[in-house]
Amino acid sequence: MIKHALLPASEFTARRAKLFAKLPASSLLVVRSGHEQTRSNDTEYHFCPDKNFFYLCGFQEPEAMLLLLKGDTEQTILCCREKDPLQEIWHGKRVGPGAAVSEYGVDDAIPLIDGDGAIVDYLSQVKHLFVCFYDNELMTMAPEWLSQVAGERRVGKKPASNISDAAPLIQELRLIKSNAELKIMRQANELSGKAHQRAMLAAADGKFEYQIEAELLHEFAVNGARFAAYNSIVAGGDNANILHYTDNNEQLNDGELLLIDAGGELAGYAADITRTFPVSGEFTVPQKAIYQLVLDSQLAAIEAIKPGQTLSALNDIVCKVLTEGLVSLGILKGDVEELVQNKACKQYFIHGLGHWLGLDVHDVGDYQSNEKRQQLRAFEPGMVMTIEPGLYIPMDADVDEKWRGIGIRIEDNIAVTEHGYENLTVNAPKTIDDIERLMAERLN
Ligand code: GLY
Ligand code: MN
Ligand code: MN
User: Fold this and answer.
1) C-alpha triplet 216, 221, 226: angle, nearest 5°
2) Domains of the chain listed by start with CATH number
3) pLDDT class of 6 with cuts at 50, 70, 90
């Protein structure tokens, strides 16, 4: 089912070529897929490879290492677990070094057990070692490799003279998506939009939040996204005011809103969509007012997306719309200009406007933030981000009672194009009319 969405080996070869071009002459770069994580006793979480490793080769098994050797020539070597009939009967098939070269397009593949020896050997031939500094285990192994080479100095071997962080180099590449990546992200968004539709149709007074979560997971999986890209947030009523609410264990009530922040992961790529809608299928008057305000602010931000734009400038656009709206609803009081200047809306819009999106839901890539935490990086074609304004008015807020317990976020996924933007989130109902029209179908 998901085969159509998998990237060809040539895509990974092209990524490695770009990374080789960034490495100084005489370098070795080592990146690892990671270990399986125990859930309890002898059961594990489903394995998710380190996304920097995955980005460079697409290999999905634990314990693997990828070596990029830039010497007289450029060579990519995959170190992976050997075939093992007994282990494979119990735990599943392994690719093995024999098939890895043809299946993953690397230059060579060796058994994991020979990996350390190969690294030590290569380190006596190059000047620079690159590893991801967040990989604590590798950071303790690297000096050991270097001291092993140093131990052989008397036979003429010299260790690499410095260790540098590989992560920023890989992550800058990840920030700009290729056409093949955008194609997958469109699919991830489409199937996630279908899941949001299904959730709207399934919502009903008395149902538990986790029952709606089950509908989302079902729709993800039948469309090829076996897993959610992150734990789904299914937050009825005041639970929406807990930003990363994932307990999902309370009952829904007519008259309240349901905020769902959920996206499937397809071929490693995340969708990250939020919709907020009434459990009853019809917004109340106060819910409508806040919802339309959040939507207006989101549309204003999206409309301004183009190369050269910044998240910081989009934040200003959103804050202006929200502040004016909150003043006209009587929730904020005072001079609009001054309130905008003082970012007064931040009392109710309590998180950032958006983030990069890709293999990770909060994807990698430098935001070029200044000391005021303004994100000043100019957009370029191929960047993908979320735009997710929200307003959160908890039950204990000091406002008119009619607003209390309303928490609304609306989140779409946007790609920057040559002249503007493409909204990847095309089929998750978003206007008040579209939501109410779809939910009315529950009665038929
Ligand atoms: N799903 C988490 C977020 O929107 O950032
Ligand atoms: Mn998000
Ligand atoms: Mn989200």
Assistant:
1) 115
2) 9-174 (3.40.350.10), 176-443 (3.90.230.10)
3) confident
